[in-house]
Amino acid sequence: MKLWLQGKGITYRSLAGQMHQSAGTISKKVNKQLMWTENDLVFLSGRFGLSADFILGLKDPIVREGGEPLD
């Protein structure tokens, strides 16, 4: 998640605003100090097309040329 966010130019503060959470909470989730919630997974899937497996760090995304995740 961390590398994907960096690659997209999405800051923790920006994502936090979209998700109505604090930047600190997003940082802890990205760094696996807090678990993503079901609502987080639904939001990230709907907004960015990310799979729960990818968000949870269980697998790398399948990407197309240019680094965009495939849907």
In summary, what is this structure?
By secondary structure, the protein is mostly helical.
Could you characterize what this model shows?
There is one protein chain. This protein is mostly helical and 71 residues long. The chain has one domain (2-55). It has five helices and no strands. The chain has helices at residues 2-8, 12-19, 23-30, 38-48, 52-55. α2 (12-19) crosses α3. The chain is globular. 8% of the residues are buried.
How are the SSEs ordered, and which strands pair?
Layout (H helix, E strand, L loop, with lengths): L1 H7 L3 H8 L3 H8 L7 H11 L3 H4 L16
Briefly note the structural class of the backbone: mainly alpha
Helical fraction = 40-55%
Query: Which spans of ≥5 residues are poorly predicted at pLDDT below 50?
Result: none
Radius of gyration computed on alpha carbons = 11 Å
Total helical segments: 5
Which overall shape is indicated by the principal axes computed on the Cα atoms? globular
Strand content: under 5%
- The string of secondary-structure elements, in order, is HHHHH
Name the descriptors.
mainly alpha; globular; single chain; 71 residues
